[in-house]
Amino acid sequence: MNPFDQFATTLFEQAKRFLEKANEALEQETKSAYCNVSLLLGFCSLEAHLNAIAEELTIRSGLDVLDRSILEEKDYVLESGRFELTKKLKMYRLEDRLQYIFTRFSTSASPTKESWWADLKKGLDLRNRLVHPKLSVDLNTQQVRRSLEAILECLNALYLAVFSKSYPTYKRSLDSKLTF
Known about the structure:
Blueprint: H1 3-24, H2 28-57, H3 65-72, E1 74-79, E2 82-89, H4 94-105, H5 117-131, H6 141-163
Antiparallel strand pairs: 1-2
């Protein structure tokens, strides 16, 4: 496993461990802090995995400028009658990139039809409310568990769709190998 893939996997292990810590915590303040960290690390891991998969997909032949723009999150311009990538960042929504990869690089159905998609979207909403707060957010362990389960199912579906194999730690479910 290359260092970036290991980093992405470690982020998810940390997310799982912080959920375990939240379940062990007796004080609500401690439980809340662990829930916040767990949710954030879970989505950091999903995005890291998505970026690693996207990088591998850029090696494939037959990609046009729009394909590369979405995979590399780079903007494009029309230059001398041709579309060209620029070095300028062009961010796409996480769910849009996921749908694109499933649709473009696999024979899988749209991920929006999968049972885990609704929980992934709810988790993204919680993450966005935590990262871009306008009101206070009070997460609980059930919300974080459902979000991490959805992330795990998404990662497994991505690996099966793109690489024809399960996500490496899928069988561990939400049991972390970390002990801090």
